Hints:
By secondary structure, the protein is α/β, with parallel strands linked by helices.
Amino acid sequence: MSTPLLQVTGITAGYGRGSVLRDLTIEVPERSVVAVIGPNGTGKTTLLRCVSGVVRPTAGTVALAGEHIHRLRPNAIVARGIAHVPQGRQLFGTLTVAENLRLGGHAARHRDDLDRRMAELCETFPIVAERRDALAGTLSGGQQQMVAIARGLMSDPRLLLLDEPSVGLAPTVIDDVAKLVAGLRESGRTVLLSEQNVPLALALADHVYVIAQGSVIAHGAPGEIGDMAEIRRAFLGMAAPEGSPA
Length: 246
C-alpha cells in the first residue's frame, strides 16, 4: 500500500474496565477504501470511535497524516479532516434535511463554502435536493442513510468513516449505498469502512482487515481475503470457493 493517511498503531481500547480492542494496528492509504470486517461484537465500531475521538485508547496511537490525534477532542479531530457517519444514521429527526447537513459542516475546515458544498451534495444525493425541507425523521431508513453520508461529506473530510452503512437496509438500497461508496472511491476520497456485509466490503475495498476478538487476524487485498477458506468458514459466514483447500 502507499503512504497511509491514517495510521492506527497498537491500540487497546474499550469501555469501563473491559478491553474491546487489543493491540490493533491498521493503515489507510490516501485515496483508497479500506474495509474492516468480522463477526458482530469484535470491535469494528470501537475502532472507528477511537479514530474519531469518541473513545480514547488506553494504549497505542492514532495518527492522521503523521499527526497524533488520539488525545484530541472529537471536535478538534473533525477540524483536522475526519468525518464519522455512525451506525444507525443518528440524524436529528426534528430538524430538516438541510439543517442536518449544515450541522455536519459546523466544524468543517472551510466553513466559508458551506453553500457550495450543499449545492454539490444536492447533485450527488437526489434525496437531499428533493427533501431538503422535510424533517429527517419522516424519511425512510434508506433515505436517512443517504442523508447521514451527505452530512458527513459536508465537512469536505480528508477521511470519511462509514460504520455499517448497509445495516437494516433493503437489498435495492444497499445497491445504492454500494454505488455511492464506489463513486467516492473513484473521486479520490479516502474511506474507512466497517461492514458486516462481507460481499459488499470485498467488492468495494482496496484493502481488507479481518478482526476477531478485538485483534486483526488477517489482512490483504479483497481477493486474498476471499480466498482464505478458514477465514470464510470461521469468521465471515461464507462458503469456501469450489476447489479451495478444506
